[in-house]
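Course assignment 3, question 2. Fill in each field.
Student: A.L.
Task: Predict the tertiary structure for the chain below.
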Amino acid sequence: MSFSVSIEPSGREFHAQKGETLLSAALLAGVALPYGCKDGACGSCKCKLLSGKVSHNAHQTKALSEQEQAQGHILTCCAVAQSDVILHCRQVLDVNLPLARKMPVRVDQLNLMAPDVMQVFLQLPQNDAFDFIPGQYVDFLLKDGLRRSYSLANAPFPKTQDPNTAQSVGATHTLVTKRYIELHIRHMPGGVFTDQVFGSLKHKDILRIEGPLGGFFLHASDKPIIFLASGTGFAPIKSMLESIAASQDASLKARELHLYWGVRDLYDLYQHEWVKEIQKQLPQLRYTPVLSEPSEASQWDGRNGFVHLAVLQDYPDLSAHQVYACGAPIVVESAKTDFMSQANLPIDEFFADAFLSQKDKQ
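Answer field:
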C-alpha cells in the first residue's frame, strides 16, 4: 500500500509506502527535499502540510513545536503518510541528489589544524565513483549501529580528472593521492568517535562511511551570497567556495560572495590562510572573520562578538540576498530569526545546516 505525495509549488510527485517516512520516500524517488540530521532534532526538513494526514515518529520540540504542529507544519524525516498528502516546500528544486552508498575508506592524512580540530583525508576505493554536491556530508558507521556525521570540505572531483591525481583547489597543502574526501573534525572529549580520531586513529586505518547525505547546497540565483560559518561549520562552506572557484559557470562566478567566519579565538581560524589564497581565484569574495572571545595573546584588532550580528551591522537589509549558514545550532537559529525579523531576509532565501552533536540529538 502506498500514498501519493505532491510538493507545491514545484509540482514534484512521488509515492510513500505504508510506514515509510516522507523524507525517505522522497530521496528514493530523487526528489530533493531539504533535510539535515534525519533524527527529528534540527528542523531543517520542516514543511507545511496543505492537505492529507500524517503521523509523526519521535522528534524534539525544538525542531517542531506544538504550536507549529497545530499550524500544520511537519518534519518530513519523522512524518509518515496516512493518506495522500500535499506539502508546501519552496526549497525543493528540480535536482537529483546523488544516491548514498556505504563503502570502506582508508585514512590518508591526519593534520592537526587547531588544538581541537583535525583535518582528515580519506582515500576512497580505487575507481569507485563518489559524486556529491558541495554542502553534503557523510556518516561514519560505527559499532553497535552508531553514526557520526561530518561535512565534506573539498569540492567534488572534476568529471575529466584522473582519479589517481585528485588535488584540492586552492589548497595550501600538497596532496597527490587516490581520490579522497576531506573532513574537519572537532574533538569532543569523551566522544565515541572523536576520541578515536585524536587518539588511536592512524594512517592507513580502514573506516566505513555512508554518503553523500544532506540537502544543504547552493541554489541557482543571481543574488549575492552571505556565507555564515561558525567553528567547523566552515567545512561545507569551503567545499562550496572550492566548487565556485573551479566552476566554468559564468553566472555562478559572477555572484558577489561574503564569508563571515565566527570562532572563539584567533587559533580557531584554522584555515585563515586558505581563505586568503582562494580570494585570489575569487576576487568577488569578501572575508570577515569574527572572534567572540579573543585572548590578549592573540592581539586581535578585527571584528568581535557574535558572528551573525556582524552580518547585520554590515547588511541591515538582506532582502536581496541569499544566506548559507552552517555550524552550531544556536548560531544558525539566531541568524535565521534575526535576519528575517530585522533585515527582511525572505525565509526562502535562508539555507542552513546546523551541526548537531550527539548531545543535541538526545
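Instructor remarks: The longest strand covers residues 101-114. The first helix runs from residue 22 to 28.
Grade: pending
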